[in-house]
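Q: Hi! Curious about what Apoptosis-inducing factor 3 looks like structurally. Here's the sequence.
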Amino acid sequence: VEVKIEVVIPEKERSKEEMSPNGKASPLIYKVNGTARHYHLEEHPIASNPYHNPKDMVEASVCHVKDLENGQMREVDLGCGKALLIKESGEFHAVGHKCPHYGAPLVKGVLSKGRVRCPWHGACFNIGTGDIEDFPGLDSLPRFQVKIEKEKVYIRASKQALQTQKRTKMMAKCISLSNYNLSSTNVLIIGAGAAGLVCAETLRQEGFSDRIVMCTMDRHLPYDRPKLSKSMDSHPEQIALRPKEFFCTYDIEVLTEMQVAAVDIKSKIAVFKDGFKMEYNKLLIATGNMPKALSCKGKEMENVFNIRTPEDANRVVKLATSKNVVIVGASFLGMEVAAYLAERAHSVSLVELEEVPFKKFFGERVGRAVMKMFESNRVKFYMQTEVSELREQEGKLKEVVLKSGKVLRADVCVVGVGAVPATGFLKQSGINIDSKGFIVVNKMMQTNIPGVFAAGDAVTFPLALRNNKKVNVPHWQMAHMHGRIAALNMLAHGTEINTVPYLWTAMFGKSIRYAGHAEGFDDVVIQGDLDELKFVAFYTKSDEVVAVASMNYDPIVSKVAEVLAAGRTIRKRDVE
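A: Let's find out. The predicted structure is below.
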């Protein structure tokens, strides 16, 4: 078999300093007639660093060797950009200083055992390579050369890397795309959220060079879904996770507005709603969830929304400006939408069955502090009641009637009363689904069917943090990690998931960060001042801390996440 290999090195990967510590790139694995063949880039010599224009490089003395103790980090200026200088175990490392996700200053993060964790949203980066090791976000950090001369620390870096502060890992390409039957693919990914995209990218990063097809009911390429409720007037191109060119460059095909209606696991065929059929070798199901609808009279009326797409969010903002808004459900989505619209709408009313927002998740005391913040921003709460009817006038929403008898004026209604897994199409498939509709997977994101994996909001999986209890964790960070683990195990790596859940919510310019899994917590230990919204809350079960939440207390949540990730137990007495 004659094998032709073309190695395409992305711009950001072309410098020596951005390779792995031993100067070797990862092996690429190409399939030839179904047989995996391994090639190392160093077997095909490339001239030493031919890509960088010397004018693009900068070198600067940044400190004395004794200026940093072991375990310390410092943001240093190279004149045309900054880097993060780290000293650990007597060695210096230099990487990008901003988290590629949302730009958090990593110097304020947590350094532990060869990696730095973002203080805002918990992403982790290897300090030796810059590679991303936990999520959210897709890109790694640029890594810079460090040298010691006459007890001074020098950093050498490309100006481009200093300016972009992020690096896309090297990926393989599909080597024979033109030879494929349109109705056949090696890997089919149903769903184009974080889990699906990370799965596709990980496959390419690991050298997988066969066909990958993603399909989605959405009309857009993968986008940053949490922004739909946090930044509601964002347009699709502003929140795209990757530009269109990225998918073309790495031969990741995305079929938009395509819904899978059934999966035949015996024949390995996915049947689409329009009748189109596609064969697959490996399958990832990452369909996420579907918002629950109201069950009352008038629920189909115009101007009643579930926030599912950028168009939904944009339309709500437009209709709500200077009008009366009613939000049903004090969920994360409901509360974030209320916060976003509070300054724009004439009035914002929030209807909730519980007595306090977030009571089951953050506990009553934190919930009341958040509720107070909302009330001081003109949001009116109607608690311990439900909607009984939506009334119209000339075909449009006019009033929301509550079971308590209260009638609220409403030009727009946003429904955020929870979600159900989007797995209805799998009912007759033979894939194991639990009583709530979640796909059951093991630690390698495998279902009960060989070659079929599942990831994201639609699954229950064993959480190491809670003694491998099967849980559903519908968070953005976790979906990323699920996608990565699924991809590695499609390639038979045998990698098990072992990550600490991490989430955040943003309201009125303030963020609550959270790490762990506190389902069924029996006590909350609070340090700081709830009234001042500067606090940390430790959630305990029996004698053990199982989760932590904070506001204006960075980087405590990232610190606790690192302790839990190391497998260490935090006792209640340690935080009291």
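A: A fun detail: Residues 1-51 have pLDDT under 50 and may be disordered.
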